[in-house]
Here is the input.
Amino acid sequence: MLADGFEVGYVEQDGSKLRRPLADVWSVRFEGVAPVRAFESHKGQRHLPGLWWSSTADGHIGYESWLERDHVMLMDFDPSVVAVSSQPFWLFWMSGNGKGLSHVPDYFARRDDGSAVVFDCRPAERRRPRDWEKFEATRAACDQVGWEFRLVGAPDEILVRNVRWLAGYRHPRHLVEPIASGLRKVFSAPRPLMDGATLVGDPIAVLPVLFHLLWLHELSVDVQVPLHAATMVSPGTGQ
Here is the structure.
């Protein structure tokens, strides 16, 4: 594989299909491109594709498996991620024996500092030798243009359960005043979750707003441990 032998194929939002040398696309806003592959479903398939409604993008992002869905969800929850696209481009290159190879990474994410991350999602037990060749080529291509490359597997189960629960309240309709202002005031100092919620009002009305503020990181909990009534809630980084 030549060091400068990569080409990138992508689809602009208007449907235009382009294929250019990697060196010429480092400034392309891949977080805004259309997927290069359709998210197809058929009877008997192993994976379960679908669409995740992203509060970050205020729109849908495709996934091809539940593993990808979990990582899209975690990116949506990550306050440093400002945009995500799925199936963002084809990467083309030649192998050492002259064979043409290609790969489509799963996601392209843009951070708030302008940096970019390319994701491939694959369970550790399903990474075959031919997959590793593609992952390493993708990593090499990303290195050339200053993007980070992440090969991710199954995320922490507790983290996923907590974030999945909060994601159920990610829609802006849960930002209800004056409840939200009351919660920000009550949790201006760390306090157990249910204790603080009951100080603001009826938990049936208050808890959805509280979970939305946790999703927004306006309030904060340790998502690495199970979420429960006594979980300590603190001021967050999103205020």
About this structure: The mean pLDDT is 92. The radius of gyration is 21 Å. Residues 76 and 142 are 22 Å apart (CA to CA).
